[in-house]
Amino acid sequence: MCLVCSIILNQSFLKISILAFLVILHESSLSFAQGNESIPFLTFASRDASTLERIAYGGGSYVAWNSSDQRSSDRVCITQDGRFWSTVRVGAQSSHKVVACAYGSDRWISVVRVDSIILHNSTLLIYYSLNGGMSWQQLSGITMPTLSIDDDYQLIFAEGNWILTGRSLGDTISVLPNPSRIWISSDGANWIDRSPSGLPSCPVPAYGDGVLVVVGYGDRIFRSTDFGVNWSSAYIGVTNYLTSVTYGNSSFVAGGTRNVLTSTDGGVNWLSQSLGNQSISFIAYGSGTFLRGAGRLQISHDGNLWSDVMRGGSPIDWNGDAAFGSQGFLLVSEYRNGLQSIQGTPPSSPTTYATNGIVGETYSASLLAQGATQYVAYGLPPGLALNSANGQILGTPTAIGTYYVTAYAGNAAGFGNFTKFTIKMR
Fold first, then answer.
1. Of 103, 168, 187, 384, which one is least surrounded by beta carbons within 10 A?
2. pLDDT in tens, 226-237
3. Which residues, including other chains, have CB under 8 Å from residue 14's CB and lie 6 or more apart?
4. For the segment 270-294, what is each residue's pLDDT rounded down to a tens digit?
């Protein structure tokens, strides 16, 4: 709104401009706050999901995992609502590392790396899940190109095709003229190398409106309308380290260090904007809104004009990853708790009136949050139950132990920030 206020307009035109602006905000599911800076923003609430680096959505489930060498494991974390998480093992051995996940058609696919004692000589396995990621089976009969992918894995699904990108051995020891790879598969088992000459290092794919776009570290962005059979590239003027790209509102939006780029013509031409010292960790799209982590959490309708997401009058500091699904945007980060978008104003985190108890004796405790109409709690001691309507925790505990409980208070808008507390039973 400061832009509108800075322009001298006649009264009637000003009214029309404001009305048009409000219509745009309404159509993009953003709220508009009168009386302050008047910056549109989404409401976000904290979620008990820490130290996760990557997340994807599909088939009603959000699947999160760690992909870095320091944190990667054979496990993924699954949630349908953003609040309750299950940890599931994918690989058959602890040496199996989940490096990429995506949903397509009726299944999840997970790319699992098996490291070798020989440097940069890992093997890739493919696992699939037909029940929202709750159990996994190894896909047999895998055929893969001779030149392997060893790092910076990205996996997406589009129009019946799985697209896997990453760096090969040559990206590390500089012996190959084109170290980055892009593989295509229609069934997840048989993969074809469709890497064009000059593909940027650390490639990241996105698909929209019949076009596959690949960004990365370099001065070109690649595009294909036939899943890599033929490629063309757009020169973007300067060398950029683009770490994320997505499609929405008839536009591709890419970002990384120093720049954010947008294309409205299927990746043929790109408009670049400087980020200064900012660095983008992710760009996601959903419900008419682009969301990015650039040190701060920011939103945009068109990928060009961005606003900070505010909470408690201050911008939300954020870097990590995000996915949009049936429960809104769900964000994860290596260094902090997760976040989930809310359409409206939820209650604050519940205050806990919980004490320790004795096995076999009647126990009573409570949760309280002003304006709450429902409560949920995870991790209660056996024998105790929560009354979801009033927050009362009642029952007779049956097992000795220390129990770590996560609780949320909600209303018609959704659930607010979580609370964690401990109950000891003796």
1. 187
2. 999 999 999 987
3. 4
4. 999 888 888 899 999 999 999 999 9
Q: Tell me the sheet residues that pair with 352.
A: 367
Buried b (16+ CB within 10 A) or exposed e, 72-108: bbbbbbbbbbbbebeebebbeeeebbbbbbbbbeebb
The closest of 200, 182, 201, 202 to 192, measured between CA atoms, is 182
* Residues 67, 334: Cα–Cα separation, whole Å: 10
265, 244, 345, 305 alpha-carbon torsion, rounded to 10°: -50
DSSP state, 415?
A: B
Residue with tokens 């020169």: 235
Read off the tokens for 49: 């999901």
The total number of residues written for the chain in this structure: 426
What confidence tens digit (pLDDT) does each residue in 256-271 have? 988 899 999 999 999 9
| 162 contacts 109 by C-beta, under 8 angstroms | yes
Distance, CA of 203 to CA of 231 (rounded, Å): 14
Q: Contact, 285 vs 247, CB < 8 A?
A: yes
- DSSP lists the bridge partners of residue 311 as 314
Tokens linked to 2: 């400061």
